[in-house]
Fold this protein.
Amino acid sequence: MVNISDAEWKIMNVLWEQSPSTIMQITKGLHETTGWTKHTVMTLLKRLEDKGAVYYEEGERAKQYYAKIPQNEAVVEEAKSFLQKAFKGKLGLMINTMIKEDALSKEELDELYEILEKGKSEE
């Protein structure tokens, strides 16, 4: 799977929401929150292209960029990577830490409980 940096995630999120997109569309969409110029976006797109995460097709006036990897696959891989780095791959340790630190609201705990119950019933 592709290792995507934090900056590259911003580009990927734009492409997952709206494909195809041109460099100028991506720049305009991210400029307010990132301050990135067209050149920064071009650099990040080139890196993502080299990693096999995006591709482009020649448009009438500009390249049309697309995400090459599905969002759900990238999210799962990122979650696995984070879990491995921060909690030695142990989901229980992560959840226990979040509960002990009061990092989860009652609504989030209820949602987690529902997810676990659904997973249990699907076995």
Summary: The chain has six helices and two strands. The longest strand covers residues 54-58.
